[in-house]
């Protein structure tokens, strides 16, 4: 037997005499509680699946937050209602219309003999594009202003606008936003502003109450707290009427909320 | 119910105790770290315990147990092939990190040399030299002919000789790695 053979034999002998990696007492414990052992041996897979779940969650959150920021979103414009036909149909339409804007449809048909199906129309349009809508009934907005059907034979959007008030706005810039809205016939009454001086190097708005008025009547009153953005979008029609389309807030987690 | 479970555990331990060390040595030689070896032992024991009812002849317990361990090793190797990129770097130094005394260093030298053999050669040598299986038993476990087993043993041993021939430089290399880690 060569020296190398002796050395190999010696190594095998030592390996045979080495203590087992798992003592017998541990094997006995393992049999008493098999679930704990399974957990131990599958821990790597557990970590792997846990990290996969976290990763998927993060991707989901990122995509969702991107959507709420408005990335790749189509602008959906709900046009005023076409009302043609009998009383019953008009009543249905006016309910739908109330849910979407403050204006009301008067349930007086132009011609009761005309039997045409009534419909609520939704159109996808881009900002600035005119959408022609025939309106054959008188309308009253929230302030009680009546638009005769004859006057609004062609009723379309002249302009769509949006304003965004950021969390770092100060009193001066708030006035600027108010003035811009005022020219469109929307009044913003901002009250109870609370500034936060602690978290940043300079004060910023942490809370405020906003009353949105159209033609001196209250459209909506909202309380904002810990917001990042406050958005109001509205449409101006050829009749001069202004309708608010949405009032949204982006909260501190950058999640969009309808107000 | 608890009595029946205890009875089953006792029956299992009666057959398992005599082969405990042989299984440990096999698992240690087939893995690259103490943790992995321990995991392999516990997984083998648990699987064998779960399938214990299906064992008709207690005399075949040794094949039954090593058959399970062998299947688990093959499964693990398939998984490692998929995750090769990040497994290799982590496992390579595991035994080195845990080797403390001279006996463990010797063991480490053998482990390192065994890992350089092909999986069939390594398994044949481990089963023959460390786990005390006969040539026929190895042939049955590896599902191959007796002459194949003999060939694997001969070639494996020759390769081991060649690897361990330069033993001084190998020992030096192991100590150098340990010093680098400190």
Shape summary of chain A = rod-shaped
| Biggest interface between chains | A-B, 27 and 37 residues
User: In this structure, how is the largest beta sheet of chain A organized?
Assistant: 5 strands, antiparallel
First-last Cα distance of chain B: 53 Å
- Total number of β-strand segments of chain A? 13
Overall pLDDT score of chain A = 70
- Helical amount of chain B: over 70%
As a percent range, the share of strand residues of chain B is under 5%
Overall geometry of chain B comes to globular
Q: Quickly give the structural class of chain A.
A: alpha+beta
3D structure, described in words:
The complex is a heterodimer of chains A (259) and B (182). With 259 residues, chain A is an alpha+beta fold. Helix content of chain A is 33%, strand content 31%. Chain A is built from six helices and 13 strands. Chain A has helices at residues 3-17, 24-32, 34-41, 43-68, 87-100, 171-183; strands at residues 76-77, 104-105, 123-124, 132-134, 139-140, 146-147, 154-166, 186-196, 204-214, 217-225, 227-237, 242-251, 256-258. In chain A, the strands form four sheets. Chain A has a five-stranded antiparallel beta sheet with strand order 4-7-11-12-13. In chain A, helix 2 packs across helix 3. The longest helix of chain A has 26 residues, at 43-68. The model of chain A is unreliable at 72-132 (pLDDT under 50). The model of chain B is unreliable at 88-93 (pLDDT under 50). In chain B, helix 3 (34-50) crosses helix 4. By secondary structure, chain B is mostly helical. Chain B is 81% helix and 0% strand. The A-B interface holds A 4-5, 7-8, 10-12, 14-18, 20-22, 24, 26-28, 30-32, 34, 37-38, 40-41 and B 9, 12-13, 16-17, 20-21, 24-25, 27-29, 34, 37-39, 41-43, 45-46, 49-50, 103-104, 106-107, 109-110, 129-130, 157, 160-161, 164-165, 167.
């Amino acid at each position: 037997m060569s020296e190398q053979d002796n050395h190999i034999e010696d190594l095998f002998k030592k390996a045979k005499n080495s203590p087992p990696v798992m003592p017998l007492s541990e094997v006995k414990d393992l049999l008493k509680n098999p679930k704990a052992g399974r957990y131990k041996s599958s821990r790597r897979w557990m970590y792997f699946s846990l990290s996969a779940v976290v990763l998927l969650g993060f991707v989901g959150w990122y995509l969702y937050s991107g959507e709420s920021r408005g990335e790749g979103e189509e602008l959906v414009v709900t046009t005023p209602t076409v009302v043609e036909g009998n009383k019953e149909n008009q009543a249905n339409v006016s309910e739908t219309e109330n849910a979407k804007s403050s204006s009301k449809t008067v349930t007086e048909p132009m011609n009761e003999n005309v039997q045409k199906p009534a419909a609520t129309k939704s159109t996808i349009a881009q900002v600035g594009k005119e959408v022609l809508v025939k309106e054959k009934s008188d309308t009253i907005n929230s302030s009680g202003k009546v638009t005769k059907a004859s006057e609004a034979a062609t009723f379309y959007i002249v302009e769509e606008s949006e304003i965004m008030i950021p969390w770092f706005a100060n009193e001066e810039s708030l006035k600027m936003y108010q003035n811009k809205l005022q020219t469109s016939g929307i009044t913003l009454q901002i009250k109870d502003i609370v500034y936060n001086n602690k978290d940043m190097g300079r004060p910023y708005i942490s809370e405020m109450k906003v009353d949105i008025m159209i033609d001196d009547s209250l459209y909506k009153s909202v309380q904002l707290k810990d917001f990042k953005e406050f958005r109001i979008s509205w449409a101006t029609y050829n009749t001069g009427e202004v309708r608010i389309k949405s009032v949204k807030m982006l909260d501190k987690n950058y999640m969009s909320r309808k107000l | 119910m608890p009595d029946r479970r205890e009875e089953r555990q006792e029956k299992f331990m009666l057959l398992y105790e005599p082969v405990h060390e042989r299984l440990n040595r096999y698992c240690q030689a087939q893995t690259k770290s103490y943790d992995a070896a321990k995991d392999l032992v516990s997984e083998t024991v648990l699987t064998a315990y779960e399938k214990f009812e299906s064992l008709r002849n207690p005399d075949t317990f040794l094949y039954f147990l090593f058959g399970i361990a062998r299947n688990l090793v093959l499964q693990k190797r398939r998984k490692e092939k998929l995750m090769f990129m990040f497994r290799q770097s982590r496992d390579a130094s595991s035994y080195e990190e845990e080797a403390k005394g001279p006996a463990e260093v010797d063991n480490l030298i053998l482990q390192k040399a065994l890992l350089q053999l092909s999986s069939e050669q390594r398994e044949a040598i481990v089963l023959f030299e460390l786990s005390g299986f006969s040539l026929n038993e190895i042939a049955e476990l590896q599902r191959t002919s007796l002459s194949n087993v003999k060939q694997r043993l001969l070639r494996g041993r020759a390769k081991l000789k060649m690897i361990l021939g330069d033993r001084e430089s190998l020992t030096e290399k192991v100590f150098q790695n340990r010093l680098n880690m400190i």
